[in-house]
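quick q for whoever's on today - can somebody do inverse folding on this one?? i tried earlier but teh output was garbage lol. tokens:
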């Protein structure tokens, strides 16, 4: 995990999920460990890069989500 992830204050929640920690962070997204009803999940959020006009990053993010949504596995968060 990058040092910027360690120094950044976590949001209390993402929608109805309680944010526990950052699992990983890259150039275009952050993956959070979250909890809802005593179940643990991972939520990947795209960083706000829209102001830079990075449409290619947005397309990659959407493509990844589309591909992962086709799988049914205990090891792939939905």
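ok took a stab at it. sequence:
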């Amino acid at each position: 995990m990058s040092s910027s992830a360690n120094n950044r204050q976590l949001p209390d929640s993402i929608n109805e999920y309680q944010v526990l920690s950052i699992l990983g962070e890259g150039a275009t997204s952050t993956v959070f460990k979250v909890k809802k009803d005593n179940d643990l999940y991972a939520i990947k959020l795209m960083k706000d890069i829209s102001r830079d006009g990075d449409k290619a990053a947005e397309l990659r993010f959407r493509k990844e989500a589309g591909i992962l949504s086709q799988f049914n596995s205990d090891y792939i968060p939905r």
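fwiw The mean pLDDT is 82. also Strands lie at 13-14, 17-25, 29-36, 39-46. so keep that in mind when u check it
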